[in-house]
Amino acid sequence: MSARSTRAVGPGAVTAVIALSGVVVSLMQTLVVPIIPQLPQLLHAEPSDASWVVTATLLAAAVVTPISGRLGDMFGKRRILIASLVALVVGSVVCALSDSLVPAIIGRVLQGLATGVIPVGISILRDELPAERVGGAVSLVSASLGVGGAIGLPVSAAIVQYAHWHVLFWLSAGLGLACLALVTALVPESPNKAPGRFDTPGAIGLAVGLVCLLLPVTKGGDWGWTSGATLGLFAGGIVVLVLWAVYEMRVSQPLVDLRVTVRRPVLFTNLASVLVGFAMYAMSLTLPQLLQSPEATGYGLGQSTLAAGLALAPGGLVMMALSPVSARITARHGARAALLLGVCVIGIGYGVGLLLMSEVWQIVITSMIVSAGVGIAYAAMPALIMDAVPVTETASANGVNALMRSIGTSTSSAVMAAILANMTMRLGPASVPTEHGFRMTYVVAMVATVVGLLLTLAIPRVQRSSAEQVTGTEAVQPRATTGKH
User: Fold this and answer.
1) Other beta carbons less than 10 A from residue 162's beta carbon
2) What is the DSSP letter of 187?
3) Integer Cα distance of 23 and 145 in angstroms
4) Number of other residues whose CB lies within 10 A of the CB of residue 25
5) Alpha carbon of 307 to those of 181, 270, 304, 310, 314: distances in Å?
6) Beta bridge partners of 177
7) In 129-165, which ranges are continuous DSSP H helix?
8) pLDDT at res. 87
9) pLDDT tens per residue, range 383-421
10) Element (H, E) at 84
11) CA pair distance 282, 277, nearest whole angstrom
């Protein structure tokens, strides 16, 4: 731990600031959800064009997480943390001053670029905190990704209902400024760096490949899944990413060290992260729609946007409350056991949801169970990653893991939207999803958790002392009891 952090700033303060920053950054994912139906009118744009306000943030977040992680390892994690929060503030101000499409998209891209706060912040905790405090702190910050998304919906819905929509972005700018001031004052620079040359071609190749791959995932419903644009971008993204991987294996200082990434603990943790992200975002998409469906459908609960958001808000509190539980499970039984438990709880939550869909309180119960599993699982993932990578690559490796979660959420958005769009009924002049459509989203989410469970079981067990588990010492050569690396 650095001298500055030991003498001047307590570990609790550093953890609180980074956790708060994580919550604020993750708020950006659900910030505009209540105004999605009004975006074409608000921005004087066609509906298909206005949807870029959401898509741009998802794409920017996916691209920036591994890049910001590598920049943090090279040039200082605190510096990248500050730069990320500056991007959030500037993007929020741009959106707050916008009444047209292009500036709003630019602002939302900048907000998405702030997503690097979470993997970089987690790496700072590993470098700066005493060994006995790292596990709980990392769990708390990792869970903030889900917490911000959960509480963002009711907060933004309340603002939209009682104030001008620009207030959403002035609020995010103010929160970003507060986090920026706290980080500047309280968070020390990490002493662990990996100096070298930044892999610019690798960063460009990764960005192009991810955009080509994720863009048709998020826009395929509008373009048509078999359209030339969708299939062409899918194919182009795969080709670019394959060429990128070949390049990364040959360059001496790669953006992403694929030799580390393909180690069995890292590989299967990242693959499981895709499925957990998928299952988490399925809840965020389907439960609000179910709550707001008209009662005339026979299954809908007829809630307002604000009421639906408030019904789901307890899930965010559950995520935060269970992060220390995940840390204790990790300390006693290992991060693999915590991830297994989290994935199982998510699956149980969707199973309960299939049986409880007729009352608001039943949806709240489903949300809380799924959120409990997400909180446990999200808190365990960074521990698994940091156990398996060198200390100088923690930010980069956590950035890749955050990217895997983003791929999961983006895929979930496309799959759930496709299911609900294709299983509809007529209600007056409108088409609305059927009850069977909502049940199908639950089933698909349960299947995702089963696959995630199998992937988690493929992660080798690692036998370590408590200190090694928390600090990640000797992480380059973990001692596995099952399988070979």
Assistant:
1) 9
2) P
3) 6
4) 30
5) 33, 35, 5, 5, 12
6) none
7) 131-162
8) 95
9) 888 887 777 677 677 778 888 888 888 788 788 888 888
10) helix 77-96
11) 9
Q: Please name the residue that has the structure tokens 């700033």.
A: 9
Q: How far is the C-alpha of 290 from the C-alpha of 286, rounded, in Å?
A: 6
94-151 pLDDT tens trace: 999 999 999 999 999 999 999 888 888 888 887 888 877 777 787 778 777 667 777 7
Report how far residue 35's alpha carbon sits from residue 129's, in angstroms, rounded to the nearest whole number: 40
Dist. CA 161–CA 181, nearest whole Å = 30
Rounded alpha-carbon distances, angstroms, from residue 306 to 69, 288, 360, 413, 432: 36, 10, 13, 21, 20
| pLDDT value for 463 | 55
Distance CA 403, CA 399 (A): 6
Structure-block tokens of residue 29: 């994912």
Only one residue has tokens 């869970």, namely 143
CA–CA gap between residue 421 and residue 430 (Å, rounded): 12
Contact between 475 and 139 (Cβ < 8 Å): no
Helix axis angle, 11-30 relative to 77-96, nearest 10°?
Answer: 40
Number of other CB atoms surrounding residue 164 within 10 Å: 10
The token pair that represents 348 in the structure block = 């149980």
- Contact partners, residue 94, CB within 8 Å, separation at least 6: 103, 104, 106, 107, 110
φ, ψ of residue 189 to 5 degrees: the values are -75, 140
- Please, what's the b/e burial string for 247-267 (b: 16 or more CB within 10 A of its CB; e: otherwise)? bbeeeeebbbbeebbebbbbb
**pLDDT, tens digit (0-9, with 9 covering 90-100), for 236-253:** 999 999 999 999 888 888
What average pLDDT is seen over the chain?
83
Place of tokens 């074409």: 40
Beta carbons of 375 and 420 less than 8 angstroms apart: no
C-alpha span between 292 and 299 (Å, rounded):
10
Amino acid 165 reads W
């992660």: which residue's tokens? 459
Q: Which of 389, 386, 378, 368 is nearest to 339 (CA)?
A: 378
- Please state the pTM of the whole predicted model: 0.80
Contact between 149 and 316 (Cβ < 8 Å) = yes
Contacts of 477 (CB under 8 A, 6+ apart): none
pLDDT at 392: 67
How many other C-beta atoms lie within 10 A of the C-beta of residue 236? 17
Residue from 340, 284, 328, 332 nearest 138 by CA: 328
Do 114 and 68 touch, CB atoms closer than 8 A?
no
Phi, psi dihedral angles at 462 (to 5 degrees): -120, 125
Chunk the chain into consecutive blocks of 10 residues (it has 485) and report each block's average pLDDT, rounded to whole numbers.
Answer: 50 87 86 81 84 84 84 85 95 94 93 88 82 78 72 80 89 95 88 76 90 85 86 93 91 83 88 90 84 86 84 83 82 89 94 91 93 88 81 74 83 84 80 88 94 93 51 39 38
